[in-house]
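Researcher: We're teaching a course module on how sequence relates to structure. For the next exercise, students receive a sequence and then see the predicted structure as tokens, so they can try to spot secondary structure elements on their own. Here is the exercise chain.
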Amino acid sequence: MKAKVRLMDPRSGKSMNIVINGYDRAARWYAQATERQRRKAEAFFGKRKAYHVACDVLSLVDKEMEVFDSPGSGDRYTIVDKSVSEKDRYGRVYHQMYSASENPYSPTGTGMYRGDYYPGQKYSLGKRVTNLVALPEEVLGFMEHIKKEDKRWT
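Model: And here is the predicted structure for the students to work with:
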């Protein structure tokens, strides 16, 4: 995932934005930033203060996954995983498609494989979500789980 992150010192009110490729929500920002970005933050905030600033994610984009939102349904989010492409017996390329509710890990929630997604075909999946920050934390965790499972089988 690619994330645009705001670093802010709450005492002085100074803030700066950086873009982190391969963003992981669980890790600290300075562990994922490049050396150049760390030096830039140290120069801006000060050597010690740079590692104790607040970090807010402004935008989150994943080029390997597309997310669609259909608010009226029980399985509200449809996730198309484009990192794995396969061909059917006729040679047509397809991707895996998953559905998830707002809390896919809840006993009353859904988070499961939905079927195959063929590019170019018409689907009524809902409105496309461009900024993943708007998604619930549980759905982002489900997307990370899908990625880990895909890597396990390849």
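Model: If you want an answer key for the exercise: Strands lie at 2-8, 15-21, 54-61, 65-69, 77-87, 93-100, 111-117, 127-129. The chain has a mean pLDDT of 86.
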